[in-house]
Amino acid sequence: MNRIAVLTSGGDAPGMNAAIRAVVRTGLEAGLSVFGVSNGYAGLIDGSYHELTRRDVGGKMQLGGTMLGSARSLAFFEQAGRQQAIDELERSGIEALVVIGGNGSQTGSHALFEMGYPVVGIASTIDNDLLGSDVTIGVDTAINVALEAIDRLRVTAESHGRAFLVETMGRNCGYVALMAGIAGGAEVISIPEYEITPEEVASELHAAHQRGKRHAMVVVAEGAKYNAQALIAHFEANQQETGFSLRYSILGHVQRGAAPTGADRLLGSRLGAGAVQALVRGERGVLVGLHGSTVGTTPLADIVGRQKAVDRDLLNLARIMSI
Ligand code: F6P
What we know:
Bound molecules: 6-O-phosphono-beta-D-fructofuranose
Number of domains: 2
CATH class of the largest domain: Alpha Beta
Helix content: 40-55%
Strand order of the largest sheet: 3-2-1-4-5-10-11
Order of helices and strands: EHEHEHEHEHEHEHEHEHEEHH
Distance between the termini: 58 Å
Number of strands: 11
Shape: elongated
Radius of gyration: 21 Å
Largest sheet: 7 strands, mixed
Number of helices: 11
């Protein structure tokens, strides 16, 4: 193996640049030429890649986003699009591909592998919904951004005796909401894996008010059936008594664009290096992730199309802490 390529796919995640840098520098150390693919699978289909040097990846690790660009490519969902991508790679003499991305992106990398192309994935998504890695690149930063917002909103909640509903990203996974909710001292947390009804939210808030709380925070995941807007609409339509004047705030993409935390820079560096080492060892069709405190691999076939389950102990911790 002489030439490999790396791409970032799906939603950008803080720490992706550290992973790209690590793939390039570990690859060069192993005597490989490393090519960066522009704009994810779309660039793979177009043959839009260029060789990267050590200097090309310098000064990027502290930046959020991805220096390679990312995209969600519809053409890649089709067998014909994937075949075109493989043809382009083979024409350029590129013998293996590293895919940095989350669930959808690794479904794509698995599809390429099934078509006979050598691929290794790196677990990267702010959602942390991917099996095969205890944590994924970007989730620590996203939690910290959500936490900063919660802390700030709490200042206003406290000053005005209000309750805030804060909605975090995470697609169908409640991990960011749960972790930010615990660390932010939320009174109520609602996530897709553990839905609570608007009536339950209202009664939890009311009970908190009765217990003497003068402000409150509800952290709700975007994927919950009742997101922040739906909860407010429900409370207004049903004159639900909570004891508080309510406001809501949807964090959205601000959680994705932050400078990566130290933890995400380290994780990106470790998983990037781990991906190249896995390729050099001859591993193919695997996801590189963090298993406990070590970097390990899991067959892509075992993780695609599945979602990490919520940790019941954390849910219980959130409940106990909120009282
Ligand atoms: O997968 C990352 C993520 O930020 C999700 O949390 C969110 O639901 C989705 O991407 C938003 O996608 P887009 O950036 O395409 O709007």
